[in-house]
Amino acid sequence: MVEPALRRENRSTTLRGAPPTLRVEHISKTFRSTRALDDVSLAIMPGEVHGLLGTNGSGKSTLIKILAGFHAPDPGGTMFFNGEPVSLPLSASDFRRLGMSFVHQNLGLVPSLTVLENLRLSHIALGHRPVINWRAERRAAAEILERYGLDFFHWRRVDELSAVNRALLAIVRAFEEIRAECERTGSPGLVLLDEPTPFLPKEGVAKLFRLMRQIADSGSAVTFISHDIDEVMEITDRATILRDGKVSGEIVTERTSRDEMIEMIIGRSLKRDAVARTAHDFAPFARIKGLTGGGIPPLDFAIGKGEIVGLTGLIGSGYDEVPYLLFGADNAQAGEMTLADGKPVQLAAMTPAKSIAANIALLPGDRPRQSGVSAISVFENMLLPDIGNYYRGSFLRSGAMRREAHRLGEVFEVRPNNPDLNLGALSGGNAQKVLIARWMKRKPRLLLLDEPTQGVDVGTRANIFEALKEAAGNGMAVICASSDAEQLAEICDRVLVFARGRVVGQLAGPDVTKDRIAAACYASLDKTATEAAEATGPDHA
What we know:
This protein is of the alpha/beta class. 34% of the residues lie in helices and 23% in strands. The protein is built from 19 helices and 22 strands. A hairpin with a 2-residue loop joins strand 4 and strand 5. The protein is globular. The relative contact order is 0.11.
């Protein structure tokens, strides 16, 4: 973690009194009858990490697309870069000239190319040289990697890198693309990071933050767009918060509490349940015995009807493999699941089709690649498991599907509630609501979740939590794998802590708190395998 006092005081005195690196004034954007941005003004100072926050649909994406030149703003808005007026919309050539660079969520890397080729792609493309001096390019790439302390080699293919190193490479490339121009003009640059952390482990986030601070300490500015309140509080100096297309607040991070920040984001306070949790006895639902596969040795545990059980641990502990093995998305080598009706299920023979037939559902953590299909409509994504029910003879009743999807969109507060939009056109939080609605509609007996609120805003998190609690109250059993201790503390009746693929700790009732979950994860490093057998919880079967 970056110490707040260190990160905010370690500033070059030459930056004091300098104009904002970026200032926008009175920016608005209207799409037909919808006002996506309404008179937005903000300033990002040199040498700072500036947060940009807001719920899905608050206008963040529209503002970033205006800054990236994808959208033209409504007449009347102005933009200044290092004190100089800039014409809008920006063109692609303007970014390098000004000293602006973007890192979008998909990172923009070419997986089949090497680190060197990705890192020097713009330089090579703009060089207009008949022959590439690969020796010079290799030397330049090695120097860049060394400058930023990146410990992988320039000859590695990008698809061989970890998610953390891919994110670091994208940010270094973005800053290097503008660094030469910044040195030539003597003016600070700006790197905008659009939610770079959702799929990174905590250790990777820490590396990312060190790199962001290194860029800010060089005098340039970093804009960090994120839904994660804790990350924003840890790394940013100041933040601008959008709500309903308007600026709802501009804050100095160290002077603002977490609750104050949340209230500005969603427009109301999230009342926390101050009543101590009590342990409950749940009617038996399922016992899993001898589950083996991936990094999981034989694993036994049970879950009750209406119980929400969390699975957690440190990265690599194996907790996140369990939902996929149970559903048949990954191949289990052995194991048996016995349901309350007495029917044993052989997990080695389990497939997703068999799970769905048994009324078991899985919501994977990697939403873009494993959960939904971005290129098809909301109504097709939402009703995909039930599509067979909408055929009349050989004809698909798409009208009935649209009507049902619109109804579910109202129930789960999908915005915009347009069933014909492609899933990829929605914000991350609204796409997650569509996928939650898909499975909630089926009322599964067992719902398996992997990081259900990853990359969604605080308001959507609250909606998902309420939906899960309501479903559990109606008897649905829920298994939630997550590294988010706060999320688990909010929704779980019981939490199982993993180490080396085994359950080595259990928290229940009043012990299910954020601090105790985090402490148990780190204490698991010292647990022995013999303790695992004592930690699987009450016998529900």
